[in-house]
Design goal:
Elements: H1 3-6, H2 10-37, H3 45-72, H4 85-90, E1 94-98, E2 101-105, E3 110-115, E4 121-125, H5 127-138, H6 143-164, H7 179-232, H8 238-281, H9 289-297, H10 300-309, H11 311-314, H12 316-334, H13 341-382, H14 384-391
Antiparallel strand pairs: 1-2, 2-3, 3-4
Helix pairs in contact: 2-3, 2-6, 3-6, 3-12, 5-6, 5-7, 5-12, 7-8, 7-9, 7-10, 8-9, 10-13, 12-13
Length: 393
């Protein structure tokens, strides 16, 4: 069987990840903890349990990293092409148009990114799927669940490829570029910004909820450390239970408030996207497309700002890689003084790489937002001669 066909099989991706990850985890564990394992004296059951758990956690992160490379990094090609964004939208698919590519949401956690230049595509997680992987990766005992979840996301993408691809057909009619074509193109670009703004609003709720859950877990860990002497001395643990309940209630209340606010903001952006899409398709003939475009122009600066903030969900592979690097580096530095000095140096390198990738993505997002703003200004200048008469009516 050909390698490209094997990469479409979830079991092949899973087996390769395990076949490479498990030996790599063993070698890394032996290299890092070799001196600790070879200490003189008997190994107590608690130490043996700790060593096994550390090996499982380390293996889980390495397997997840390899699986991420196998599923998100390669670009695939099929014999048939994908329909254009307009066709997919008319068929009811959720599509986000980007510069040189477009994303097709095929499931709640999976999307297909199609590159218009060569027709190749990649299998990626949606913003919801990305943050689900990140949340599972925060807890070492749950990292293996993140691995299986990523395999599930990849399988969902490939199952949708056959339903989306079609036999490429060349258009028989060549349309001349005029005001109608320029207007439709501007409406399509504005619709893409509005649709992405809704996705960014939705993803921002997940970001804030994840931060709130993380701080709640840290607060509970601090509470547990502070209450440990009392619990060990068999004192009354009532204030530990009270603190736990207070932290849980605060986290739940905060998430509910964030969700209510997010629904309101997302509904506003989706209303704009639906209005622009209806105008493009000519559903409501009583509304002037130029009038709708003029009203939407007032929202474009805000949508461009949201576009810049959405870099983390547009590039899930880089986001996940930077997260893994920073978490691995931070965890390594927390072991400072208890493990070989080379491991500490390696952890510093991982943390520096993660921070550098994070900073590079932020700078790239700002540059991309400026380019989009310039392109939009040029587009409006090109249509100014058509828009001015409409303003005078």
């Amino acid at each position: 069987m050909e390698v490209p066909k094997l990469l479409s099989k979830w079991w092949f991706v899973a087996l390769v990840s395990l076949a490479i990850g498990i030996p790599s985890a063993f070698l890394a564990f032996k290299f890092v903890f070799g001196d600790f394992v070879s200490l003189d004296g008997a190994i107590t059951p608690s130490i043996r349990l700790m060593m096994i758990s550390q090996y499982v956690f380390l293996g889980g992160y390495i397997i997840l990293f390899i699986c991420s490379l196998l599923t998100m990094a390669p670009r695939h090609v099929v014999g048939t092409g994908f329909p254009g964004p307009d066709t997919l939208m008319r068929e009811g698919h959720k599509v986000i148009v980007r510069k040189g590519s477009y994303d097709i949401w095929v499931a709640k956690y999976s999307l297909i990114r199609v590159y218009e230049e060569d027709g190749m595509f990649r299998c990626l997680p949606t913003s919801t799927g990305l943050w689900a992987i990140v949340l599972l990766s925060l807890g070492p005992p749950f990292v293996m669940f993140a691995f299986f979840f990523l395999v599930y996301i990849n399988d969902k993408c490939w199952r949708s490829v056959k339903d989306l691809t079609w036999e490429e057909k060349k258009d028989q009619v060549v349309n001349e570029i005029g005001i109608d074509e320029l207007l439709k193109d501007s409406l399509r670009s504005t619709f893409a910004l509005a649709r992405e703004a809704a996705d960014v609003r939705r993803a921002s709720f997940q970001d804030h909820a994840l931060i709130l859950v993380t701080f709640s877990m840290l607060a509970w860990a601090v509470l547990m450390v502070l209450s440990a002497p009392i619990v060990l001395d068999r004192g009354p643990p009532w204030w530990f239970y009270t603190g736990t309940a207070a932290i849980a209630a605060t986290a739940i209340a905060g998430i509910l408030i964030l969700r209510r606010r997010s629904k309101r903001l997302v509904a506003k952006e989706e209303e704009w996207a639906e209005k622009l899409f209806s105008t493009m398709e000519g559903v409501d003939a009583g509304i002037s497309p130029i009038e709708v475009l003029l009203d939407a122009c007032m929202e474009v600066p805000r949508w461009l700002s949201l576009h810049r903030k959405g870099i983390w969900t547009r590039e899930p592979g880089k986001t996940l890689l930077s997260f893994i690097l920073m978490v691995a580096g931070s965890n390594g530095l927390m072991q400072y003084g208890s493990i070989w000095w080379g491991f500490t140096l390696f952890s510093i390198v991982l943390l520096a790489l993660g921070i550098s990738l994070f900073s590079w993505m932020a700078i790239a997002a700002r540059t991309e937002a400026h380019e989009l703003a310039r392109e939009w200004e040029d587009r409006m200048k090109g249509m100014d001669s058509f828009l001015v008469p409409e303003r005078r009516r």
